[in-house]
Amino acid sequence: MKSDFCVAVHALVYLNHRKIAVSSEELAKNICTNPARVRKVTARLKEAGLLETREGSEGGSQFVEDPERVTLEQVCEALNLRIVETNWLSGDAEKTCQIASGMAGIMQGVMDDLDQCCRKQLAQQTIAQIDRQIFHKDEEGAPRADLPQTRKDH
């Protein structure tokens, strides 16, 4: 999985929390990366309809969807990411050995199966759930009594 996923989820949670348009510079500062990288990721989130952007002094990106309905799997889809992937597979389809010629195809199938399992898991997690985990809130948005309330809003 690429780190763009982390940038995207972080940006969406931050924008959801702020409820206003935020510049790529402000997002980059909170994410701890550079604004160009943030713009690259937010452009893909905009294409997927998860963000709106405005130009000018009051411009920036703004989260426009219901955080209870936006899943982490949707974020992967917006970024066109595979969760489980490899840059290299062993073997060679041109070899006469059945193991050498068949291993890459078998392992690609394993990677595809793992990717689908991970996507199913990510489909169960939403932006709102991450927000609640960060700010220790229950499903209704109230502070959870079982966790310490030490974090600042942002």
Supply the key terms:
154 residues; mainly alpha; Arc Repressor Mutant, subunit A; two-stranded antiparallel ribbon; 6 helices
Briefly summarize what is shown.
The chain is mainly alpha-helical and 154 residues long. It has a domain at 4-85 and 125-135: Arc Repressor Mutant, subunit A.
Describe this structure in words.
- The protein is mainly α.
- It has six helices and two strands, in the order αααββααα.
- The protein has a domain at about 5-85 and about 125-135: Orthogonal Bundle (Arc Repressor Mutant, subunit A), CATH 1.10.10.10.
- The chain has a two-stranded antiparallel ribbon.
- β1 and β2 form a beta hairpin.
- α1 packs across α3 (about 35-45), α1 (about 5-20) crosses α4 (about 70-80) and α4 crosses α5 (about 100-120).
- It is elongated.
- The relative contact order is 0.15.
- Mean pLDDT is about 90; it is low at about 145-150.
